[in-house]
Amino acid sequence: MKEKDYLDHLVGVFGHPAAENPGVVIQEAAFRALGLKNWRFLTIDVDQGKLGEAVAGLKAMKFRGINCTIPHKIEVLKYIDIIAPSAKLIGAVNTIINDDGVLTGENTDGQGFMIALKSAGIAPQGKNVVVLGAGGAARAICVELALAGARHLTVVNIPRDMALGESLIRILKENTTVAVGYVPWVDAFRIPSGTNILVNATSIGLYPNVNDKPNIDYDTITQDMYVQDVIPNPAFTPFLREADKRGVRWQSGMQMLINQAALNITMWTGLKPDKDVMIKAFKKALA
Ligand code: NDP
Predict the structure, then answer these.
(1) Which domain holds residue 146?
(2) 1 in a structural domain
(3) Mutate which of 117, 131, 202 to test ligand 1's pocket (most atoms within 8 Å of Cβ)?
(4) Taking CB atoms and a 6 Å cutoff, what residues make up the pocket around ligand 1?
(5) Which burial class, exposed, middle or buried, applies to 42 when counting CB atoms under 10 A from its CB (0-12, 13-18, 19+)?
(6) For residue 160, what pLDDT is reported?
(7) How far apart are CA 102 and CA 185, in angstroms?
(8) pLDDT of 163
């Protein structure tokens, strides 16, 4: 008789709030397609101040790994044994792998962005890049671009938190060879000529604010540029509509999201999930 195995293999996400995180839909669709019947992705609301206890629980219950999202991506660093080099520079971890109680922290947001670039046929080496925003996603993207050999990065951020933009610039200058510039975002930003890649790494346009778009002079987008949004929902933002109107190549944040989720699955299971299955599940969840 075949031996029974009812043991669950646990992964999931720690967030606060957590209810709207679509990770479970994407990840469990991938697990089913891979035939991983006992793998479960749990969406877990962890209050601020309770992260240490949650991480202890994760170890006690032998979770294979966990994603961390707002507000835990930075605080979780203090509970991790090994931090991947890019995650260390970014200063945030969104994925933890648990190897028999030894926790490794990765940041797959920027890696997911880089895979999206590659799939669009864009090589970052020698490119001039404009990144709108200086928050978590912007940091991850800038660090990965710099490590991959981008030539120049311009970080555009509203001056309400100059320290955020300036600390990112300092990290890039001290740890990579990329040339960097910081522009306080006051008026409609004009994309400098010679820009190869334009990235919206702000939260502008994210559901429910689906009509919002970054304050830039869209007529400064030229046809030779490549435009990338980080917003996964909706997939076709007003920012991308403006890019599309001007005939440039663009990609939505949905690909980046699916890429990072696929990386997480590979880190946890050693298997390569079917991204089409994941995209289909994500779109169904949004419908
Ligand atoms: P943060 O809050 O850390 O950063 C948001 C950035 O956007 C900040 O620099 C913020 O500036 C700026 N910003 C917000 N509103 C405005 C505005 N009206 N005008 C100018 N700048 C503005 O968030 P994250 O970086 O973690 O996330 C940003 C977006 O990226 C989210 O929508 C998230 O869903 C998405 N994301 C997508 C991923 C994917 O895989 N597709 C992965 C990770 C994130 P300030 O600090 O001054 O407010």
Answers:
(1) 110-252
(2) no
(3) 202
(4) 109, 112, 133-138, 157-158, 160-161, 164, 185, 202-204, 206, 230-232, 253, 256-257, 260
(5) middle
(6) 80
(7) 42
(8) 82
* Whole-number Å distance between alpha carbons of 209 and 227: 20
Check whether residue 241 and residue 132 sit in a common domain: yes
Considering the domain architecture, whether residues 239 and 262 belong to the same structural domain is answered as: no
Give the residue, by CA position, lying nearest to ligand 1 atom 3.
135
- pTM of the entire structure? 0.94
Please report whether residue 2 resides in a domain. Answer: no
Q: Identify the residue whose C-alpha is closest to ligand 1 atom 17.
A: 204
CA atoms within 13 Å, Cβ hemisphere of 200: 32
Residue with tokens 């999202």: 69
Q: What is the CATH number of the domain that holds 157?
A: 3.40.50.720
Q: What is the dihedral of CA 72, 74, 75, 78, to 10 degrees?
A: 130
Active site residues: 73
Is 238 within a domain?
Answer: yes
Q: Is residue 19 part of a domain?
A: yes
pLDDT profile of the chain (287 residues), mean per 10: 86 95 95 96 97 98 97 95 95 96 97 96 97 93 96 92 84 95 95 98 93 98 97 94 97 96 98 98 90
- Ligand 1 centroid – CA 230 distance (Å): 8
CATH number of the domain at 84, please.
Answer: 3.40.50.10860
Sheet strands side by side (includes 179-184): 179-184, 152-157, 128-132, 197-200, 226-229, 249-251
Task: For a ligand 1 pocket test, name from 16, 106, 203 the mutation site with the most ligand atoms within 8 angstroms of its C-beta.
Answer: 203
Q: Residue whose CA is closest, atom 18 of ligand 1?
A: 204
The pLDDT value recorded for residue 162 is: 78
Residue 125 and residue 198 in one domain: yes
Rounded to the nearest whole angstrom, what is the distance from the C-alpha of residue 233 to the centroid of ligand 1?
Answer: 13
User: Total domain count for the chain?
Assistant: 2
What pLDDT digit, counting tens, does each position of 94-126 carry? 999 999 999 999 999 999 999 999 999 999 999
Q: So what's the pLDDT on residue 3?
A: 78
